[in-house]
Specification:
Layout: E1 5-9, H1 13-24, E2 28-33, H2 36-45, E3 60-64, E4 74-77, H3 84-91, E5 100-103, H4 116-123, E6 128-133, H5 138-142, E7 147-153, H6 156-166, E8 171-176, H7 179-201, H8 206-226, H9 231-234, H10 237-246, H11 253-262, H12 267-273, H13 278-292, H14 298-307, H15 313-321
Parallel strand pairs: 1-2, 1-4, 2-3, 4-5, 5-6, 7-8
Antiparallel strand pairs: 6-7
């Protein structure tokens, strides 16, 4: 397997960052933009408005996304979770059998309750679905700061080769075949990061933040276990690692959304101003899926209720703090 020609679909902050990462790894890379106009602007400026100050590597070819753009040995989809289906449909005609299509979004599709690789499998049956996730802010990776992530595919040899193809001195992908575990970690941690942001915005203190993150991880772990995820994946980079990162800094869009809510910003306005916070879309889906399997997720449930306006924050805090005492687990 030789992954020498790689396409990245999506020219937001993460897409541009990944294109640069791939170019630094010595691969030929094409960056697919939303349309011809945005392609022309990036070609002229060699910079994305989503990532100001970061120059696009000279080796990156830029073009409007089409089936032709996506011709390559592997495809990375750096688009939001709720837009992933449309992106896969667009590139499907160009995909050769067994071509890895790697979701780089952290979420679950609303309405269908499908994970990202399930969407890929449904829309592009010839492709090999994969997922890239882990504790990584685009700004850090773009600056060349040390980062480690997880790449998962059902074929271990392919996952290992992809990790090698994308990896470099400062960007280290670990590989696994636990696709579902990686997807669950990335999706659930976004919801819990909103809760962590609420704690911060409400000024509830460092002790509360630590308790929230720890008990939130217990919920993530229960959900992952019920869906067949491996414990080592959930406690690894794409699970616990990403949760720690996302629950600790305003660099996280989801944490920032929570901070705004904690400071009293109305849920609708807070979400409208932060459309890229994936956790806002994932929260109700996560809770629905947990309910169907009898999985207890009180923190995620509180976040979903706060976001849809059916529960105020003070009541949510009181509800969580007055739950029956029990053994830890």
């Amino acid at each position: 397997m030789a992954f020498d020609r790689i396409a990245v679909i999506g020219a937001g902050a993460w897409g541009v960052t990944l294109a640069n990462v791939i170019a630094r790894a010595g691969r030929s890379v094409t960056l697919g933009t939303r349309d011809a106009l945005s392609a022309a602007a990036i070609i002229k400026q060699r910079e994305s408005p989503r990532l100001p100050g970061i120059r696009l590597n000279d080796q990156v070819r830029v073009a409007a996304t089409s089936a032709e753009t996506a011709r390559g040995d592997a495809i990375l989809l750096a688009v939001p979770a709720q837009q992933l289906r449309a992106a896969v449909v667009m590139i499907t005609p160009a995909l050769g059998r067994g071509t890895p299509v790697i979701a780089c979004a952290k979420g679950i599709e609303r309405g269908t309750h499908k994970f990202m690789t399930e969407v890929i499998a449904e829309c592009a049956p010839a492709a090999l679905p994969a997922i890239l996730s882990g504790p990584s802010f685009a700004a850090d990776v773009a600056r060349g700061l040390p980062t480690a992530v997880t790449l998962a595919a059902s074929d271990e040899a392919v996952a290992a080769e992809l990790a090698t193809a994308l990896g470099s001195t400062m960007f280290r992908p670990y590989h696994t075949t636990d696709v579902r575990g990686v997807e669950i970690g990335g999706a659930a941690k976004n919801v819990l990061a909103i809760a962590a942001g609420i704690v911060s915005g409400r000024g509830l203190g460092a002790s509360a933040a630590a308790a929230l993150t720890t008990r939130g991880f217990a919920e993530l772990f229960r959900f992952g276990h019920a869906f067949g995820a491996r414990p080592e994946t959930l406690t690894g980079l794409s699970g616990l690692g990403d949760l720690i990162l996302t629950c600790s800094t305003p660099q996280s869009r989801n944490f920032s959304l929570g901070v705004a809510l904690g400071k009293g910003e109305p849920p609708h306005e807070a979400q409208l101003a932060r459309k890229l916070a994936e956790g806002a879309f994932t929260a109700p889906v996560l809770v629905e899926m947990a309910s169907q399997r009898g999985i207890e997720m009180p923190i995620a449930g509180a976040v979903a209720a706060i976001l849809d306006g059916t529960l105020d924050i003070d009541t949510a805090i009181e509800n969580l703090m007055t739950r029956p005492f029990k053994a830890e687990g």
